[in-house]
Batch of 3 targets.
Target 1
Amino acid sequence: MVEARRDPERGRIVGAEEQTAGVGRHGRKWISPAGEGLYVSMVLSAKPVPIIMLALGLAARQAIGCGDIRWPNDVLINGKKCAGVLAQVEGEAIIAGIGINVSQAAFPADLETPATSLSLEGMRVSREDLLVALIKSVDRFSALAAEEILRQFPNVSGKRVKAEANGKTIEGVTCGLDPAGFLRVREDNGTETTILAGGVRPL
């Protein structure tokens, strides 16, 4: 993403064989060993960040060909994370960093969310083919209107979660997305809170 920001021309794609300082949302570490994952940053046209985050999650899942999406864009297979997205505004553009675990055979045991790779889930795919599929999917979903992205996003209602909001940890039940793509959670005290960023975990 640092390299992509140096020349944020729409359509530019920067890939890395490995990342020595890969991070996800909230500065969490992203394990990026050489030759075992797909690590790319794409420069996209400006779009509201919450909506583009949802679109990128849909795109990553389509490129992989399976999986569930945990709001806003983590792709999980059998409850384990195999792909994540980080988007940052850079002037008139959005820099989208996407990491997909492809052939890793093991992960640290102390990760906040258990991780997996396509290989561990029995899927055999080349990183080159996956990159082509990802580019096509990102092109498709990032061009959709916000209303269509929200319509295609999986149902997120009725799930009991723990989330970070307004500097504190809350617990409650999800009650859908608002028109901007943010997650709404009804806390146990009846208060409805809008979650503006990730950090949502199932209970």
Target 2
Amino acid sequence: MPEPNPPPAANVPSAQELKTALKAFRKRLKLTQLDADSNISGGPLSGGKRSDIVAISPPNQFPQAVWDELVKQRKLKYIGHGMYELIEE
């Protein structure tokens, strides 16, 4: 007699949801950095300065379980106060 499949664990996000959330996080981080870069430049002849922004609060359309799972998978790093940093490999 075959064993029944165990039910999926509660609040475990799907692989597709994790992929979509990480893509949204990357996009928001990039836009935040570009916005900061445009405000720092100073003038048309200055050398400008790259943004020092490396962490943001994640998009709120995804549940906390998604961000926790991405931290567990070492795709993001929680740095405190609701802020996450992207881990590039």
Target 3
Amino acid sequence: MMCELMPGLVISDVMMNGLSGIDLCSRVKKDSALSHIPFILLTANALPEIKLKGLECGADDYITKPFEKEVLVARVNGLIKSRENLHKYFYNAVP
């Protein structure tokens, strides 16, 4: 579905039925067609080793629940702006 829709950003819970958010993130980041998509993981688990796993799999951010809606919105906006700036830089840098 991601290959078809090419989302600007993915937000996934770590704990899901079947495939975990960490596994999903890992698959996305290993796929050259999708790896550029910013990925945020959400979880109620505050253990440092779980957060480390999430970041090691390639997640761009990791937010522990409960969280303020404004924090999520700010992080989403920051990631999107960062990607847009990279895109502009590389677009202008290539002759």
